Amino acid sequence: MSLEPMLSRPRIPYGTWGSSYFPAWQQSALAEVNIGQFAGEAAGRIYGRRRVPLSEVDYLVIGSTVPWHWKFWTAPLISACFGRRVPGYHVEQACATGLKAVLVAGAEVQAGREVAAVVTFDRTSDSPVGVFPERRSHERTIAISDVWDNFGFDPATGKSMIATAGNAARKYKLDRREVDELALYRHQQYFDALESGFLDRVLVPLEILGVNGRSIGRVDSDAGVRRLTPEALAAMRELDSCVTSGTQTHASDGMATLLVTTRERAKELSPRPEVDVQFVAKFETRVAPAMMPEAPAEAVKGLLQRTGLSLDDVAVLKNHNPFAVNDALFARSLGCDWRTMNRTGSSLVWGHPQGPTLTRCLIEGLEEAVDLGGGYVLVFGCAAGDVGIAALFQVTEGGN
Protein backbone atom coordinates (compact mmCIF):
# COMPACT_ATOMS: atom_id res chain seq x y z
CA MET A 1 0.00 0.00 0.00
CA SER A 2 1.61 3.31 -1.07
CA LEU A 3 0.03 6.08 0.96
CA GLU A 4 1.43 9.41 2.08
CA PRO A 5 2.88 9.53 5.62
CA MET A 6 0.11 9.46 8.22
CA LEU A 7 1.23 12.63 10.00
CA SER A 8 0.78 14.76 6.87
CA ARG A 9 -2.81 13.76 6.24
CA PRO A 10 -5.56 16.28 7.01
CA ARG A 11 -7.57 15.78 10.20
CA ILE A 12 -11.16 16.30 11.32
CA PRO A 13 -11.24 17.37 14.98
CA TYR A 14 -13.50 14.93 16.78
CA GLY A 15 -16.65 16.41 18.29
CA THR A 16 -16.53 19.76 16.50
CA TRP A 17 -19.13 18.83 13.88
CA GLY A 18 -22.89 18.95 13.65
CA SER A 19 -25.87 18.66 11.35
CA SER A 20 -29.37 20.02 11.36
CA TYR A 21 -32.23 17.58 11.27
CA PHE A 22 -33.49 17.04 7.72
CA PRO A 23 -37.19 17.92 7.56
CA ALA A 24 -38.96 16.65 4.48
CA TRP A 25 -39.95 18.74 1.51
CA GLN A 26 -42.06 21.74 2.59
CA GLN A 27 -42.60 20.35 6.12
CA SER A 28 -40.65 22.98 8.05
CA ALA A 29 -39.91 26.65 8.36
CA LEU A 30 -36.79 26.07 6.25
CA ALA A 31 -39.08 26.45 3.24
CA GLU A 32 -39.54 30.10 4.26
CA VAL A 33 -35.91 31.24 4.63
CA ASN A 34 -32.82 31.82 2.54
CA ILE A 35 -31.11 28.46 2.97
CA GLY A 36 -27.60 29.85 2.48
CA GLN A 37 -28.06 32.48 5.13
CA PHE A 38 -29.61 29.92 7.48
CA ALA A 39 -26.76 27.47 6.91
CA GLY A 40 -24.10 30.08 7.66
CA GLU A 41 -25.85 31.25 10.82
CA ALA A 42 -26.55 27.66 11.91
CA ALA A 43 -22.89 26.70 11.43
CA GLY A 44 -21.86 29.57 13.68
CA ARG A 45 -24.31 28.39 16.34
CA ILE A 46 -23.12 24.80 16.06
CA TYR A 47 -19.49 25.82 16.54
CA GLY A 48 -20.54 27.93 19.49
CA ARG A 49 -22.11 24.86 21.08
CA ARG A 50 -18.98 22.85 20.31
CA ARG A 51 -16.86 25.62 21.89
CA VAL A 52 -14.86 26.21 18.73
CA PRO A 53 -13.71 29.86 18.47
CA LEU A 54 -14.65 31.14 15.02
CA SER A 55 -11.42 33.13 15.08
CA GLU A 56 -9.62 29.83 14.45
CA VAL A 57 -11.21 29.38 11.01
CA ASP A 58 -9.16 30.77 8.10
CA TYR A 59 -10.99 29.26 5.12
CA LEU A 60 -14.48 28.16 4.10
CA VAL A 61 -15.65 25.53 1.63
CA ILE A 62 -19.39 25.44 1.00
CA GLY A 63 -21.39 22.92 -1.00
CA SER A 64 -24.90 23.13 -2.43
CA THR A 65 -26.72 22.11 -5.60
CA VAL A 66 -30.02 24.02 -5.64
CA PRO A 67 -29.97 27.72 -6.67
CA TRP A 68 -30.58 30.18 -3.86
CA HIS A 69 -30.76 33.95 -3.75
CA TRP A 70 -27.29 35.55 -3.51
CA LYS A 71 -25.61 32.33 -4.67
CA PHE A 72 -23.26 34.45 -6.79
CA TRP A 73 -21.51 35.51 -3.57
CA THR A 74 -21.09 31.90 -2.37
CA ALA A 75 -18.55 31.47 0.45
CA PRO A 76 -17.93 35.19 1.10
CA LEU A 77 -21.62 35.63 1.92
CA ILE A 78 -21.86 32.43 3.95
CA SER A 79 -18.76 33.38 5.92
CA ALA A 80 -20.39 36.70 6.83
CA CYS A 81 -23.47 34.80 8.09
CA PHE A 82 -21.12 32.36 9.76
CA GLY A 83 -19.57 35.19 11.75
CA ARG A 84 -16.05 35.10 10.36
CA ARG A 85 -15.01 36.98 7.22
CA VAL A 86 -12.66 34.56 5.48
CA PRO A 87 -12.03 33.56 1.85
CA GLY A 88 -13.42 30.42 0.34
CA TYR A 89 -15.46 29.01 -2.51
CA HIS A 90 -18.33 26.83 -3.59
CA VAL A 91 -18.30 23.11 -4.55
CA GLU A 92 -21.00 21.27 -6.44
CA GLN A 93 -21.04 17.63 -7.55
CA ALA A 94 -24.69 16.59 -7.45
CA CYS A 95 -25.34 14.02 -4.70
CA ALA A 96 -21.61 13.69 -3.96
CA THR A 97 -21.33 17.36 -2.96
CA GLY A 98 -21.33 16.70 0.79
CA LEU A 99 -18.29 14.42 0.60
CA LYS A 100 -16.51 16.27 -2.19
CA ALA A 101 -16.54 19.51 -0.15
CA VAL A 102 -14.78 17.72 2.71
CA LEU A 103 -12.15 16.31 0.36
CA VAL A 104 -11.58 19.74 -1.19
CA ALA A 105 -11.12 21.21 2.29
CA GLY A 106 -8.54 18.50 2.96
CA ALA A 107 -6.63 19.54 -0.16
CA GLU A 108 -6.70 23.17 1.04
CA VAL A 109 -5.20 22.14 4.38
CA GLN A 110 -2.48 20.17 2.61
CA ALA A 111 -1.78 23.31 0.57
CA GLY A 112 -1.17 25.33 3.73
CA ARG A 113 -4.52 26.37 5.22
CA GLU A 114 -4.72 26.02 9.00
CA VAL A 115 -8.43 25.41 9.67
CA ALA A 116 -11.05 25.06 6.94
CA ALA A 117 -14.75 24.97 7.79
CA VAL A 118 -17.02 22.94 5.54
CA VAL A 119 -20.66 24.07 5.35
CA THR A 120 -23.00 22.09 3.09
CA PHE A 121 -26.68 22.79 2.62
CA ASP A 122 -29.66 22.65 0.27
CA ARG A 123 -33.36 23.35 0.29
CA THR A 124 -35.22 21.16 -2.16
CA SER A 125 -38.59 22.57 -1.10
CA ASP A 126 -39.90 25.83 -2.56
CA SER A 127 -37.34 25.71 -5.36
CA PRO A 128 -36.83 28.77 -7.58
CA VAL A 129 -38.18 29.15 -11.08
CA GLY A 130 -35.39 29.17 -13.61
CA VAL A 131 -35.54 30.27 -17.26
CA PHE A 132 -32.48 29.27 -19.24
CA PRO A 133 -31.47 30.35 -22.76
CA GLU A 134 -31.11 27.17 -24.83
CA ARG A 135 -29.32 28.27 -27.99
CA ARG A 136 -29.06 24.86 -29.65
CA SER A 137 -32.67 23.84 -29.13
CA HIS A 138 -35.82 24.44 -31.14
CA GLU A 139 -37.10 26.09 -27.96
CA ARG A 140 -35.66 29.54 -27.36
CA THR A 141 -35.76 29.16 -23.58
CA ILE A 142 -36.28 26.28 -21.17
CA ALA A 143 -38.28 27.03 -18.04
CA ILE A 144 -37.62 24.87 -14.98
CA SER A 145 -40.34 25.51 -12.43
CA ASP A 146 -38.93 23.18 -9.81
CA VAL A 147 -35.48 21.76 -9.25
CA TRP A 148 -36.93 18.26 -9.36
CA ASP A 149 -37.84 18.83 -13.00
CA ASN A 150 -34.11 19.05 -13.64
CA PHE A 151 -33.52 15.76 -11.81
CA GLY A 152 -36.16 14.05 -13.95
CA PHE A 153 -33.78 12.89 -16.65
CA ASP A 154 -30.13 12.83 -17.59
CA PRO A 155 -29.71 14.96 -20.74
CA ALA A 156 -26.93 12.63 -21.90
CA THR A 157 -29.12 9.50 -21.77
CA GLY A 158 -32.70 10.68 -21.42
CA LYS A 159 -33.08 8.36 -18.42
CA SER A 160 -34.43 9.30 -15.00
CA MET A 161 -32.75 8.39 -11.73
CA ILE A 162 -35.53 5.91 -11.02
CA ALA A 163 -34.82 4.28 -14.38
CA THR A 164 -31.16 3.78 -13.40
CA ALA A 165 -32.29 1.86 -10.31
CA GLY A 166 -34.69 -0.23 -12.36
CA ASN A 167 -31.97 -0.97 -14.93
CA ALA A 168 -29.62 -2.17 -12.19
CA ALA A 169 -32.31 -4.26 -10.50
CA ARG A 170 -33.01 -6.09 -13.75
CA LYS A 171 -29.34 -6.56 -14.63
CA TYR A 172 -28.53 -8.09 -11.24
CA LYS A 173 -31.86 -9.94 -11.02
CA LEU A 174 -32.64 -8.41 -7.64
CA ASP A 175 -35.66 -9.74 -5.81
CA ARG A 176 -38.42 -7.29 -4.84
CA ARG A 177 -38.90 -9.08 -1.51
CA GLU A 178 -35.22 -8.66 -0.59
CA VAL A 179 -35.30 -4.97 -1.52
CA ASP A 180 -38.42 -4.45 0.62
CA GLU A 181 -36.77 -6.31 3.51
CA LEU A 182 -33.69 -4.14 3.17
CA ALA A 183 -35.74 -0.93 3.29
CA LEU A 184 -37.54 -2.11 6.42
CA TYR A 185 -34.22 -2.95 8.04
CA ARG A 186 -32.78 0.47 7.20
CA HIS A 187 -35.77 2.16 8.85
CA GLN A 188 -35.35 0.06 11.99
CA GLN A 189 -31.65 0.99 12.12
CA TYR A 190 -32.61 4.65 12.10
CA PHE A 191 -35.22 4.30 14.83
CA ASP A 192 -32.79 2.28 16.98
CA ALA A 193 -30.17 5.04 16.66
CA LEU A 194 -32.75 7.70 17.43
CA GLU A 195 -34.10 5.93 20.52
CA SER A 196 -30.60 5.12 21.84
CA GLY A 197 -29.63 8.79 21.84
CA PHE A 198 -26.87 8.27 19.28
CA LEU A 199 -28.29 10.87 16.90
CA ASP A 200 -28.36 13.48 19.67
CA ARG A 201 -24.56 13.63 19.34
CA VAL A 202 -24.82 14.40 15.63
CA LEU A 203 -28.00 16.43 15.13
CA VAL A 204 -28.53 19.91 16.54
CA PRO A 205 -32.03 21.40 17.02
CA LEU A 206 -32.05 24.86 15.46
CA GLU A 207 -34.35 27.87 15.66
CA ILE A 208 -35.48 29.51 12.42
CA LEU A 209 -35.41 33.29 12.61
CA GLY A 210 -37.57 35.57 10.48
CA VAL A 211 -36.62 38.96 9.07
CA ASN A 212 -37.53 40.61 12.38
CA GLY A 213 -35.09 38.36 14.24
CA ARG A 214 -37.87 36.43 15.95
CA SER A 215 -38.33 32.70 15.84
CA ILE A 216 -40.70 31.47 13.14
CA GLY A 217 -40.11 27.80 13.77
CA ARG A 218 -37.75 25.11 14.93
CA VAL A 219 -36.05 22.26 13.10
CA ASP A 220 -35.85 19.47 15.66
CA SER A 221 -36.85 16.28 13.85
CA ASP A 222 -36.28 14.42 10.60
CA ALA A 223 -39.83 15.19 9.51
CA GLY A 224 -40.79 12.84 6.73
CA VAL A 225 -39.42 9.63 8.23
CA ARG A 226 -42.11 6.97 8.21
CA ARG A 227 -42.65 3.77 10.13
CA LEU A 228 -43.16 1.12 7.49
CA THR A 229 -44.67 -2.34 7.73
CA PRO A 230 -44.01 -5.37 5.50
CA GLU A 231 -47.65 -5.34 4.43
CA ALA A 232 -47.58 -1.67 3.45
CA LEU A 233 -44.37 -2.08 1.46
CA ALA A 234 -45.60 -5.16 -0.35
CA ALA A 235 -48.77 -3.32 -1.39
CA MET A 236 -46.90 -0.39 -2.98
CA ARG A 237 -46.91 -0.11 -6.75
CA GLU A 238 -43.59 -0.54 -8.52
CA LEU A 239 -42.45 2.65 -10.22
CA ASP A 240 -39.71 0.62 -11.90
CA SER A 241 -38.18 -2.78 -11.12
CA CYS A 242 -37.82 -3.08 -7.31
CA VAL A 243 -38.49 0.65 -6.85
CA THR A 244 -41.50 1.90 -4.92
CA SER A 245 -42.23 5.02 -2.91
CA GLY A 246 -41.16 3.05 0.17
CA THR A 247 -37.81 1.89 -1.19
CA GLN A 248 -36.46 5.26 -2.30
CA THR A 249 -35.44 8.39 -0.43
CA HIS A 250 -37.43 11.62 -0.27
CA ALA A 251 -36.63 15.29 -0.87
CA SER A 252 -35.67 17.22 2.24
CA ASP A 253 -33.92 20.38 3.50
CA GLY A 254 -30.95 20.86 5.81
CA MET A 255 -27.32 21.69 6.48
CA ALA A 256 -24.22 20.11 8.00
CA THR A 257 -20.80 21.38 8.99
CA LEU A 258 -17.39 20.17 10.15
CA LEU A 259 -13.79 21.35 10.39
CA VAL A 260 -10.75 20.11 8.48
CA THR A 261 -7.31 20.97 9.79
CA THR A 262 -3.83 19.70 10.62
CA ARG A 263 -2.96 17.04 13.16
CA GLU A 264 -1.66 19.60 15.64
CA ARG A 265 -4.62 21.97 15.35
CA ALA A 266 -7.10 19.09 15.59
CA LYS A 267 -5.72 18.22 19.02
CA GLU A 268 -6.12 21.82 20.13
CA LEU A 269 -9.70 22.17 18.85
CA SER A 270 -11.20 18.80 19.79
CA PRO A 271 -12.83 18.24 23.20
CA ARG A 272 -11.26 14.78 23.03
CA PRO A 273 -7.77 15.29 21.60
CA GLU A 274 -6.90 11.64 22.12
CA VAL A 275 -9.27 10.79 19.24
CA ASP A 276 -7.52 11.15 15.89
CA VAL A 277 -9.61 11.33 12.69
CA GLN A 278 -7.51 11.38 9.54
CA PHE A 279 -8.03 11.27 5.81
CA VAL A 280 -6.69 8.14 4.11
CA ALA A 281 -7.72 7.96 0.45
CA LYS A 282 -10.48 8.64 -2.07
CA PHE A 283 -11.59 7.28 -5.43
CA GLU A 284 -14.08 8.36 -8.10
CA THR A 285 -15.30 6.53 -11.18
CA ARG A 286 -18.01 6.31 -13.82
CA VAL A 287 -19.94 3.29 -15.04
CA ALA A 288 -22.16 2.59 -18.04
CA PRO A 289 -24.81 5.21 -18.81
CA ALA A 290 -28.00 4.98 -16.74
CA MET A 291 -26.49 2.42 -14.34
CA MET A 292 -26.08 4.67 -11.31
CA PRO A 293 -26.40 1.99 -8.56
CA GLU A 294 -23.30 0.27 -9.94
CA ALA A 295 -21.13 3.38 -9.55
CA PRO A 296 -20.73 3.46 -5.73
CA ALA A 297 -19.78 -0.22 -5.70
CA GLU A 298 -17.16 0.32 -8.41
CA ALA A 299 -15.78 3.35 -6.57
CA VAL A 300 -15.37 1.27 -3.41
CA LYS A 301 -13.64 -1.49 -5.38
CA GLY A 302 -11.21 1.06 -6.80
CA LEU A 303 -10.53 2.53 -3.37
CA LEU A 304 -9.87 -0.85 -1.78
CA GLN A 305 -7.52 -1.79 -4.60
CA ARG A 306 -5.69 1.53 -4.24
CA THR A 307 -5.18 1.08 -0.47
CA GLY A 308 -4.64 -2.68 -0.39
CA LEU A 309 -7.49 -3.09 2.11
CA SER A 310 -10.58 -5.28 2.07
CA LEU A 311 -14.05 -4.76 3.48
CA ASP A 312 -13.01 -6.95 6.40
CA ASP A 313 -10.59 -4.18 7.39
CA VAL A 314 -13.37 -1.57 7.53
CA ALA A 315 -15.20 -0.91 10.80
CA VAL A 316 -17.96 1.37 9.47
CA LEU A 317 -19.73 1.42 6.11
CA LYS A 318 -21.91 4.47 5.42
CA ASN A 319 -23.39 5.47 2.11
CA HIS A 320 -25.89 7.70 0.39
CA ASN A 321 -28.51 5.25 -0.81
CA PRO A 322 -31.24 7.02 -2.79
CA PHE A 323 -32.73 3.60 -3.54
CA ALA A 324 -32.70 0.38 -1.53
CA VAL A 325 -31.55 -1.17 -4.81
CA ASN A 326 -28.17 0.55 -4.28
CA ASP A 327 -27.45 -1.38 -1.10
CA ALA A 328 -28.72 -4.70 -2.44
CA LEU A 329 -26.50 -4.32 -5.50
CA PHE A 330 -23.50 -3.25 -3.40
CA ALA A 331 -23.84 -6.31 -1.17
CA ARG A 332 -24.14 -8.59 -4.20
CA SER A 333 -21.20 -6.96 -5.98
CA LEU A 334 -18.80 -6.96 -3.03
CA GLY A 335 -19.96 -10.13 -1.32
CA CYS A 336 -20.99 -8.55 1.96
CA ASP A 337 -24.09 -8.56 4.17
CA TRP A 338 -26.13 -5.37 3.73
CA ARG A 339 -27.15 -5.63 7.41
CA THR A 340 -23.61 -4.55 8.38
CA MET A 341 -24.00 -1.19 6.60
CA ASN A 342 -25.58 2.06 7.80
CA ARG A 343 -26.00 0.86 11.38
CA THR A 344 -27.11 4.28 12.63
CA GLY A 345 -29.35 5.29 9.73
CA SER A 346 -29.01 6.44 6.14
CA SER A 347 -30.36 8.86 3.58
CA LEU A 348 -32.77 6.23 2.30
CA VAL A 349 -34.67 6.90 5.53
CA TRP A 350 -33.94 10.46 6.66
CA GLY A 351 -34.02 12.04 3.24
CA HIS A 352 -31.83 13.64 0.64
CA PRO A 353 -31.31 17.42 0.67
CA GLN A 354 -28.48 16.98 -1.85
CA GLY A 355 -25.61 19.17 -0.56
CA PRO A 356 -25.38 18.01 3.07
CA THR A 357 -26.41 14.38 2.58
CA LEU A 358 -22.97 12.77 2.48
CA THR A 359 -21.62 15.22 5.07
CA ARG A 360 -24.17 13.90 7.56
CA CYS A 361 -23.32 10.32 6.52
CA LEU A 362 -19.66 11.03 7.27
CA ILE A 363 -20.36 12.61 10.66
CA GLU A 364 -22.54 9.67 11.71
CA GLY A 365 -19.89 7.24 10.50
CA LEU A 366 -17.13 8.92 12.49
CA GLU A 367 -19.25 8.94 15.65
CA GLU A 368 -20.00 5.26 15.19
CA ALA A 369 -16.30 4.45 14.78
CA VAL A 370 -15.52 6.20 18.07
CA ASP A 371 -18.17 4.04 19.77
CA LEU A 372 -16.44 0.98 18.33
CA GLY A 373 -13.04 2.07 19.64
CA GLY A 374 -11.73 3.23 16.27
CA GLY A 375 -11.15 1.79 12.81
CA TYR A 376 -11.54 2.63 9.16
CA VAL A 377 -14.67 4.51 8.07
CA LEU A 378 -15.71 4.05 4.44
CA VAL A 379 -18.16 6.62 3.08
CA PHE A 380 -19.46 6.39 -0.47
CA GLY A 381 -22.31 7.32 -2.77
CA CYS A 382 -23.48 8.21 -6.24
CA ALA A 383 -23.64 11.41 -8.23
CA ALA A 384 -25.26 12.60 -11.45
CA GLY A 385 -26.50 9.42 -13.10
CA ASP A 386 -23.43 7.19 -13.33
CA VAL A 387 -20.68 8.64 -11.10
CA GLY A 388 -19.47 6.97 -7.91
CA ILE A 389 -17.37 8.46 -5.11
CA ALA A 390 -15.76 6.76 -2.11
CA ALA A 391 -13.50 8.05 0.67
CA LEU A 392 -11.72 6.32 3.53
CA PHE A 393 -11.02 7.85 6.95
CA GLN A 394 -9.29 6.34 9.98
CA VAL A 395 -10.30 6.86 13.58
CA THR A 396 -7.81 5.98 16.32
CA GLU A 397 -7.90 6.61 20.06
CA GLY A 398 -5.22 7.10 22.63
CA GLY A 399 -2.62 8.64 20.32
CA ASN A 400 -0.07 11.24 21.45
CATH arch. level architecture of the largest domain: 3-Layer(aba) Sandwich
CATH class of the largest domain: Alpha Beta
**Strand residue percentage:** 15-25%
Biggest sheet, strands in spatial order? 1-9-4-2-3
Provide the structure class.
Answer: alpha/beta
The largest β sheet comes out as: 5 strands, mixed
**Number of distinct helices:** 12
Structure commentary:
This protein is of the alpha/beta class and 400 residues long. The protein has 2 domains: 167 residues, Peroxisomal Thiolase, Chain A, domain 1; 160 residues, Peroxisomal Thiolase, Chain A, domain 1 (3-Layer(aba) Sandwich). It is 33% helix and 21% strand. The chain has 12 helices and 13 strands. The strands form 4 sheets. It has a 5-stranded mixed sheet with strand order 1-9-4-2-3, sandwiched between helices. Strands 10-13-12-11 form a 4-stranded mixed sheet, with helices on both faces. It is globular, with a radius of gyration of 20 Å. It starts with 17 loop residues before the first strand and ends with a strand. The model has no long low-confidence stretch (mean pLDDT 92).
